[in-house]
Amino acid sequence: MKLFVDTGDLDEVKKAAEWGVIDGVTTNPTLIAKTGKPFKEVVLKICELMPEGAISAEVVATDYDTMLKEALEISSWNPQIVVKVPLIENGIKLVSTLTDKGIRTNVTLVFSVSQALMAAKAGATYISNFVGRVDDNGADGMDAVRDTVDMVNTYGFDSEVLVASVRHPLHVLESIRAGAHVATMPLKTLEMMFKHPMTDSGLERFLADWNKAGLSIF
Ligand code: E4P
Questions:
Q1: pLDDT of 33-42, one tens digit each?
Q2: Which residue among 42, 66, 68, 176 is the one 20 to 30 A from 193 at the CA level?
Q3: What gap in Å lies between CA 11 and CA 141, rounded to an integer?
Q4: Which residues contact 62 (CB under 8 A, 6 or more apart)?
Q5: If you average pLDDT over every residue of the chain, what do you get?
Q6: Fold for domain 2-213?
Q7: Around Cβ 71, how many Cβ atoms within 10 Å?
Q8: Do residues 119 and 87 make contact, with C-beta atoms less than 8 angstroms apart?
Q9: DSSP state for residue 140 in the 8-state scheme
């Protein structure tokens, strides 16, 4: 399963990129606004920090003509860029157009399998199924992910199911079990994935025994 970091913070992208295991970055208008920097500048810097990554950058218009202009502008900045499009009628129309032009898309704000089917049929590269926001409302966000993975596999769509709005490592475990293609999450959630108390205590013991014996590698 691919891992993306969900952030506009350049220090966070740099840190995640250094691990060598992160496949891309997702941003959204909220995350970009938080940086206090111009959109293009942030996105291009992210591309530079993660040169092999898929970098999602979102359109903000909701009428088709302006959405198309924005999408063509954003995608012209760097070939790594994946145009992020909200799942509204004009968004699906836009994804169909961008698919015909060979421009990669990430359909965002997907909460149901029927929405996901529309995105898959339009040729979305990624279908961003949000889980945390559903959990926040007392339902199980992973239900739609499981059904969407089944739907994509059953009908042989090329779209990758991207689990978004991931809040903790349990969401990652459930994404793996569901067979999702990608999960995107904040840096702090990725950092939590390294952690296990027995790793810490085990390492402490190894090093204490080694030092007590006065050993050295060199
Ligand atoms: C994904 O692309 C979104 O930017 C993100 O996962 C939303 O997460 P949130 O629900 O924690 O804001």
A1: 999 999 999 9
A2: 42
A3: 30
A4: 86, 88, 90
A5: 98
A6: TIM Barrel (3.20.20)
A7: 26
A8: yes
A9: -
CA of 40 to the centre of ligand 1 (A): 20
User: Does ligand 1 come within 6 angstroms of the Cβ of 6?
Assistant: yes
Largest CA distance in the chain: 72
For residues 178 and 175, what is the distance between their CA atoms, to the nearest angstrom? 5
DSSP-based three-state secondary structure for 203: helix
Domain extents for the chain? 2-213
Tell me the per-residue pLDDT of 12-36, one tens digit each, with 9 for 90 and over. 999 999 999 999 999 999 999 999 9
Distance 63 CA to ligand 1 centre (A): 23
Q: Confirm or reject: Cβ of 184 under 6 Å from ligand 1.
A: yes
107, burial (CB in 10 Å: exposed 0-12, middle 13-18, buried 19+): buried
129 lines ligand 1 (CB under 6 A): no
pTM: 0.96
pLDDT digits (tens, 9 = 90+) for 67-97: 999 999 999 999 999 999 999 999 999 999 9
Cβ(130)–Cβ(110) below 8 Å = yes
Rg (CA), the chain: 19
